[in-house]
Amino acid sequence: MQALLEHFILQSAMYSLIAVALVAFLESLALVGLILPGTVMMAGLGALIGGGELNFWHAWLAGIVGCLLGDWISFWLGWRFKKPLHRWSFVKKHKALLDKTEHALHQHSMFTILVGRFVGPTRPLVPMVAGMLDLPIGKFLTPNLIGCVLWPPLYLLPGILAGAAIDIPAGMQSGSFRWLLLAAALLLWLGGWLGWRLWRSGKAAADRLTPYLSRGRLHWLAPLVLGAGIVALVALIRHPLMPTYIDILQKVVGYPAA
């Protein structure tokens, strides 16, 4: 799959847009998204946007189309094949995750559909389970549309930032700026993830990381890492190359020519 996408990308911008739509579609498709490294692929495609090889707005639209197709086909599959799906071995293997998704949809259907779009393990499951539960289309439509509009740029963003950084002229402390950008991004992401684990530590069941990331340890580790990320971000903002980087990003997200 990845080799096929690379071949497409090297051909033309149109093939790159097809690749964005295809990755968004497969990442959203029932169960397929559980085994596809779609997040990494979206970031890689985002690097093309950051490097100026692919139009941001066109890629965003392609991502929305792929996302909507994947979600609505998944919803239909869940509605049409609810009984056979319960007997499928692959579904039984992920029964615990399916049960949690079903419970969340029963409790807060619209919120679960919207938030589930941004959570890796539940993204390809929520639409299918919603269909299996015969959720009214009206309840599924609005949060699904909002999620599919917001999801593509968020998942393309890491690649966009990296691609734009590559275009910074050599010299003029460009190396230190790129390392600082990477450190700020990683620390802020890690701090947010640790904060999320801290928030859910009293509600979620223990997993493989619980012995290493206990609630007591998270109380000081999460704010420490997040604070380091904020310090790195402030240093990045004050870096002499930040105006140049902002100019590159503004060109990347500029409106397409009429």
Automatic annotation (TrEMBL):
Please give the start and end residues of each transmembrane region.
12-36, 56-79, 145-166, 178-199, 220-237
Keyword Transmembrane appears in the UniProt entry: yes
The protein's UniProt keywords, in alphabetical order, are: Cell inner membrane, Cell membrane, Membrane, Transmembrane, Transmembrane helix
**Membrane topology, record value:** Multi-pass membrane protein
Keyword Flavoprotein listed: no
Record's GO cellular component terms? plasma membrane
VTT domain sequence ranges: 36-159
Listed InterPro entries: DedA-like (IPR032818), VTT_dom (IPR032816)
Q: A Pfam family name for this chain? A: VTT_dom
Compartments where located: Cell inner membrane; Cell membrane
Q: Which family does it belong to?
A: Belongs to the DedA family.
Q: What is this protein called?
A: DedA family protein
Output the lineage of the source organism: Bacteria, Pseudomonadati, Pseudomonadota, Gammaproteobacteria, Enterobacterales
